[in-house]
């Protein structure tokens, strides 16, 4: 969960800039916070898309914004989601193949910066399968027997977005800059400039 809020200093500055119209300060901050939250959600999705091999739409759907109000001057971005199957990332081949069409080894990658890694552990190769429920996954046998099999999974969207080194840490400074710019724009709008 990412919180975008103001400090007392910012409220005092806005009230000082607005002069006689200082009663409009909470409204200006509310609008600036909400606009900044929308920009932050887009920036987080874009940065995550640059880093991971998951489609941008998945990131946008996972993030919900709780808007600020004049009484509660804090906007919140909350990311939700379960651990994603490896099939949601880049996998080659992407479809289930059997017989002569079956590849020697299935490869996958989670990070765009990394290469495709062969999924083979302990002499057991991974494969793309379709379960009776219709769910398609990358799986691997647990032993020499036909069953049981285990599905591969990777990070959830909240984990990806919260990654200080790859996503949130890069976007965080921009959020503060955007908030300052949006506050100044709201003050100018109220003052009629």
TrEMBL record:
Protein name: Prophage minor tail protein Z (GPZ)
Pfam families named among the record's database cross-references: Minor_tail_Z
Residue ranges of coiled coil: 11-50
Keywords for this protein: Coiled coil
InterPro entries: Phage_lambda_GpZ (IPR010633)
